[in-house]
Amino acid sequence: MKDGWEIKKLGEVCEIQGGATPKRTEPLYWEGGTYPWFTIEDIRKQGRYINDTQQKITKLAWEKSRIFPKDTVLLCCTASIGEYALTCIPLTTNQQFNGLVIKDKSYLTPKYLMHYCSTIKQNLLMLSGKATIDFVSADKVKKLPIPIPPLPEQERIVSELDCINGILEKKREQIKELDALAQSIFYHMFGDPVTNEKGWEVRKLGDISMVKIGPFGSLLHTSDYISGGIPLVNPVHMQEEKICPDIDFTVSDEKLLELQNYILQEGDIVFARRGDIGRCALVGNAENGFLCGTGSLYVRLLHDINRTFFLKLMRSPSMIKQLNSFAKGATMLNINCKIIEDLIVPLPPLSLQQSFATKIEAIEKQKELIKRSIAEVETLLASRMQHY
């Protein structure tokens, strides 16, 4: 232990309590609400420092809720376990999060506590019961050790880590700006694909493609999954319009032979058919031969259409909104082959599609350079965290 540093249990230095969700069926708790109610979506939208929340509750619900003051560290202890954030306003939260309220800020600073929480995900996973989903009780969180240096050292550590995180945030913003540019170019060249204000030729998607839903029911059981075999592509494996396979979520060559009709080919577009409707990815050369998963469907274009154009068309906000309006299901929205086949899509001249694809290729190259830079900075951050 470094000179002047101490080891404490989190429960010794923080009050730790969980949040709750006001009854959804009670309009008096939600309608016209103005008080901040935090969920994990707020981290995804604005990062680690929470200045507002997407969802709001009423004064009545607020008065019945546990309020966490400014400078509370929120730590997710179920589902997306290990996620964390720091409150910049008083708020209340759902039951996924525990609020860590520092007892003495002259001994432990909120930002130092937040950075510490970024290092404990693996510890939390080891503590989780995993009966159905990961869960760590507040009592277990209280027993976690936290190294506490003298206050000036905490402030120096926070200053350095904030600087590195600031660089990361700027680079991630550049990625978002490039994505917005790609979308802007699409709308400038082709207009809204749903209203088709530019009057392009339109066709039913089923007339220009083959649409196939992934295997389910008696075709694929949990026992068929192996590690290190042929990857399946489900919604969770589609990230930023690319396929990110899971080597532990695969099938054997023998099982693949039974499911030949579901084998993906280069150029196919694979879609999430449930949950995050509109998520999709282009099958590249490296993914040729992967298997369409049970939660997906794929479109194999039979018409001369540029794949990059088609992918951006299907990822446009208006098309995603339309797909969600067509989706069915009481507990979880889903789409089927008929919905996709009946979808009306515009077909601008192929030369214009290809011109658009060239612009997108240039943007993607810029994104790749930034992503490499992000990886380098993340390595630096991990190194400094390990050091401390």
Task: Spell out the key features of this protein.
single chain; about 400 residues; alpha+beta; four-stranded antiparallel sheet; 21 strands
Describe the protein in words.
With 388 residues, this protein is an alpha+beta fold. 39% of the residues lie in helices and 20% in strands. The strands form 7 sheets. The chain has a 5-stranded mixed beta sheet, with helices on both faces. Strands 12-20-17-18 form a 4-stranded antiparallel beta sheet. Helix 8 (151-190) packs antiparallel against helix 14. The radius of gyration is 24 Å and the shape is globular. The model has no long low-confidence stretch (mean pLDDT 91).
Task: List strands and helices in order, with pairings.
Layout (H helix, E strand, L loop, with lengths): L5 E4 H4 E5 L8 H4 L4 E4 L1 H7 L2 E2 L4 E3 L1 H6 L8 E4 L7 E4 L4 E2 L3 E6 L7 H8 L3 H7 L10 H5 L2 E4 L2 H40 L10 E4 H4 E5 L16 E4 L4 E2 L2 E2 L6 E2 L1 H6 L10 E4 L7 E3 L8 E2 L3 E6 L5 H8 L2 H10 L10 H5 L2 E4 L2 H38 L1
Parallel strand pairs: 3-8, 4-7, 13-19
Antiparallel strand pairs: 1-10, 2-9, 3-5, 6-7, 6-9, 11-21, 12-20, 13-16, 14-15, 17-18, 17-20
Helix pairs in contact: 8-14
